[in-house]
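Subject: mismatched residue count in predicted assembly?

I count 1081 residues in my input, but I want to confirm that the predicted structure covers every chain. Input:
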Amino acid sequence: MFRFYGLLKYSFICIWSVYVIAPFMWAITTSFKDFNSVTGGATYIPWIDFEPTLDGWRQLLLSPSEGGVALVQPYLNSIMVTLLSSAISLVLGTLAAYSLSRFKFKAGFIKNSDITFFFISQRIMPPVVLSLPFFIMLGNLGLLDTLIGLTIVYIVLLLPIAVWIMVDFFNKIPVEIDETALIDGCNPVQAFFRVVLPNSIPGIIVASLFCIIFGWTDFFFAFILTFTEVQLLPVAVVALNSSITPWWSLSAAALISVAPLIIVAFVVERYLSKGNLSGALK
Amino acid sequence: MKLTKLTAFLLGSVVLGGAAHADKWSDMFPHIKNSGDIPGECSYESMSKKDYSGRKLTINTHAVPVMGEPTALHAEQFAKLTGAEVNVIHTPAGDLYSKAMVPFQTGQAPYDIVFGFSQWISDWKQYLEPVPAKYVNMKQMQDVTKSHIDVASWDGTMYQFPIDGDRHYLKYRKDVIDNPEMQAKYKAETGKELRVPQTWKEYGEIATFFNGWDWDNDGELEYGSAEVMAKDNLMFAAFFSRSVAYAKNPRTPGGFFFDLETMEPQVNNPGFVEALTDWVEATKYVPPGGINFTLGDETMSFGGGQTLFSFSWDDAFVAAMEDGSPIKNKVGAAPLPGADKVWNRVTGEWDNEYNQAPYIVWGWASAVAKKSKNHDMAFDYLCFFSNDANHQADIAIGRFGVNPFRKSDFDPDLYVKNQGWDPEIANEYSRTLLDMEEKSKNRVFPLRTPGVAQFTSAVATGTSKALAGQLTPQEALDEVAAEWKKIIARVGEDKLREAYAVGVALEDNLE
Amino acid sequence: MNFKHKYIFLLPGLFVLLAILIFPIGFTVRLSLSSWDSFYPGLDFIGIDNYIRLFSDDPRFWEAFGRLAILSSVTVTLQYVLGFTLAHLVWKDIVFKRFFRVLFLIPMMTTPVIMTVLWRTIFHESLGPINDILSFFDVTPRWLSDETLALVTVMIVEVWQWTPFMFLLLLAGLLSLPKEPYLAAEIDGAGPFRKFVYVTFPLMAPISVGAIIIRLIEASKIMDTIFVMTSGGPGTSTETSSFYIFIKGLREFQMGYSAAMSFTYLVIMIISLTVIANILVKVFVKGN
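Triage response: the counts match. Full output below for your records.
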C-alpha cells in the first residue's frame, strides 16, 4: 500500500517536472534555429535534425541597425526599477500591515478589514484603463520616460501585495511577543523593530519575492509610459515581435530573462527550508 | 600638345575625382556599395553638409527587421553625417497606433517621427506636419508612383512621407503551376487547365486539388493556401482583397465600403457575402492551424514552401526569394484573381461579366509630428531614408520590408543583379506591380475615414466568427454592417461622408 | 497600545497609495462620462450614456464576463488543487526535495508575455512539437483554431504559469504549522489521510482563502496569454473582459467607453469577490 503511494507520489512529481521543464527545453533548442529549421516542421536535436546557428543569441547583443535588439540596457533598467519600487513598497507596506494587524481602526464604518481590502482591491483594475490617466499625470509632472516615473507607478502595483502578505504573516505572530517587549520597557515602535520584525523575516522574504516578480514581469505600464531613455526588458523583448516572429531570438531572450529570477528562487527556498518560520514562535 | 596633356590631365582628374566621390561615401557606408552615392538634394553628400550637432531626433518605428532595421540603420548613418543624436524606439505592429495616439491626444510629442499604417491618415493628420513643398518637388519624390502619392496625401496635402510601397498580389509556386507533369495530371483528373487562377473560384479549386499531399517531394505534406486569418489587425485586408473582385463594379462609382450618398454600409451586400463564403471554404485548404495564421505565420508557411498560393503583402514572396530559401526562384507573382460576376448595387443584381480590380492596400507610412520641434531635421531624415542610393539598397534586402513604390523601382534588372532573381520571375514581378500601380482603372482605395480602427475591428470580429463557423457569412456580415451603422452614428454621418468622399474621388477620377 | 503610534505606521503607506491613485481613478471615472474617442479627444460630458450603452447594447461585454468567470474559476481551482498537492509532496523529506522545490517555483519567475510567445510556437499546429509528437498517434488537435480547445490551451498555459504561486504560499504555510496537533493526532492513531483532512487542511484554511482570493483577482486580469496566443479568437471564444476593454480602449481608441467598462468591471469584481470570500471562509474555516 505504501509502495503504491510512494510510486504515485514520484510519478506525479516527475510528470509535473516534465511539464515545468518542457518549454525551457524547447526554448533552448529553438534558440539555435533559423528560418528554414523552423518552417520545415518541428525539429528537436541540433546537428541531427537541423543545422544550429548562433543567430538567435547574437541578435540579443547587436544593435537594431545591425538587425538585433540591444538587451543590455533594458536589462539593467528593469533591475533598477524593480528593486527600487519593491524596496519602497516593502517598507511602506510592512509598516501599514503591522498597524492593520495590531491596532484597531475605526473611522465611521470603515474597519481594519476594509482598509486591508482597499489596498488589495487596487490589484483588480486592469492596467489598460489606468494607462491613459497615468500617462497624463506623468506627462504633466514631466516624469514620462524616466526611472522615477515608472517607479512611482510600480509602487501602486506592488504596495498592495506587500500589505496583503505582511498582514497575513503578522497575524500569525502571537501578540504575546509584542507584549513581552512592551513589558520590557520598549515603546511600540521599538517593539516593532527589535522584536517583531526579526521574527517576520520569512514573510518579508515571500513578500519581496512577489514584489520582485510582479515588478520584473510587468509589461503594460512600461510599454505605455516609456519611450527612449528608459526601456524595460519585457518591452524590449516584445519589440522583437515583428511581422515574422523570430522564434530563435525570442527563445534566447526568454531564457536570459528568466535567469536572474532563478537565483532569487534559490534564495527563497533556502529561507523556507531553514524553518525560520516555526523556530521563533517557540 | 601641352594643352592636350593638360586637358587630359584635367579630364582625368575630374573623372577620377568623380569616381573617388562615389567611392568616398560607399567606403564609409558599405550599405550603398553597389551604387555609390547618387546625387540629389538628400544624398549622402548633401546631408554631410548639414550640421545638426547638439540636436536630438526621436523616432517610433516597427520592430526589427521589417522597417525597424532600415530605420535604425539610416538613423545611424544620418547621425554620422550630420552630427545629430538619433533615438529609435521599436514597437510591435499592433501597438504602433496606440503608442503614437496616446501622446498625440494628450498634447505631448515625445516622437518627432512616427511610423504606422497609411490608412490611419484620417485619424492622424491633425497631429501631423504636412510635407513642405520643397520635398514634394524634389526629383526623388516626383519619381513616386501616383497611387503612392495619393495614399500619402489627403485632399491634395501630403501628410505622410512615402518611404515604402505596399500591395496585395497573388503568389504561386511556379514549379507546380508551370510544370508540364502537374498540368497533365490536373487536366487528366479534373478536365481543366492548370494555370494562374483568374478567379477566386478557380483559386479555390486548384488549391483544393493540391491540398494535403506532398507535391514537391520534400517529405512533408503541402497545402493549398496560406492566408492571414488570425483575428488581428491585419486580417480584414485579406478579406477585402477577396471582396474587391465581387463588389467593386466599375459601372457603379460612388463608393465601395459605403454608398457615398446615403452612407449605407455595403459590407453585407451579396458581393461581400460571396467573398466571405469563398473564404470560409478556404479554411478547408489551409495548413493545420491556418485559421490562426498571422502575417508572420503566412510568411513562414508560403516562404517555407508549405503552400501553393498566398496573396497578401510582399513579405511571403520576399522570404521565398531569399538566398538559402528552398524555393528560391520557384515562385511567381500575378495580379489578384478576379471573379466571373460582380454585384451591381444600383440594379440590385449580379452583372455576369469578368471583373478584376486591385486593392491598393495600405502599407508602411512615416510622418512628422506637428508638435515636434525638429521639423527640419525630421524631414531631412525621411528624405535621406528614401534617397536614391539608400532606396535601391533597401529594396534589395528582403527582410527590410521596403518594397517598390517608385517608377524606377520597377526595373527587373535591379532584382536580377542585386538579389539573384531569375530574369523571368523579375520581369513578371515588375510587370504585375507596375500594371497595378499605374495602369489599373478599376480599383479600391483603403478605407481611410475617422474611426477606421473601429470599422476594421468590426470586420475582423465578424469575419472571424464566420471562419470559425459561429455564424453564416450573411449573418456575420449583417452583424458587421449593423456595427458600422452604430459607428457612423457616433462619428457623425456628414463628417464620415466628407472623409470617405476623398477616397472615392481617388477611385473614380483616374487619368 | 499608544494611540498615536498606530497612525505613524499606517499613514505613510496609505497616504502614498492614495496620492498616486487619486488622479488616475478620478480621471477614469470622469473619462467614463465623456466620449473621448480617436476623433473626438477631450473631456466632453455625455452623462451616463456610456453606461446605458454598456448595459443595453453590448452583449459582447457580458459574454466576455461569462467566459472570464469560467476561465478564472477553472484555472484557480486547478492551481489550488495542484499547488496544494505539490506543496504537500515536497513538504516532508523526499529525494532531491530542495531541487524540486526550486524547480516548481520557476514558471512563476518568467515574464508571462515572453513565455506565452514561446507557448504559441509550441502549440503551433503545423510547426510545433506537440502536434508533431501527437501525430504519431494520429491525433492533431486544433489547439488554437478550435473554439473550445483554444480555451483549454489558455488554461494549460495559465496553470503552468501560476500554480507556483499557490505552491509557494501553501508550502510556506505548511512549513510554519505547529507540531502539536500532529503529535496529538499520532497519539489518537490517525493515518496520513485523516491527518490531512482533520489537521492540515483546517490549519491551512486562512492561507487557502487568502491565496484563492488573490489568485482570483490576478486571474481576472488575464491579458498577456490571450493577447499573444489567440487575440480573443477564434471568433470571440477566448475573449475576456480585460481583453475586450483593451481592444475598445487602445485598439479602437474608444477611451470614454472603455473607462465606463472598466469602472463597471471594478464594481462587479469587488462585489463578487466579497461574496466569494465570504463563501470561502464559511466553507474552509467554519466548516470545521
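DSSP finds 13 helices and no strands in chain C. Marking this ticket as 'not a bug'.
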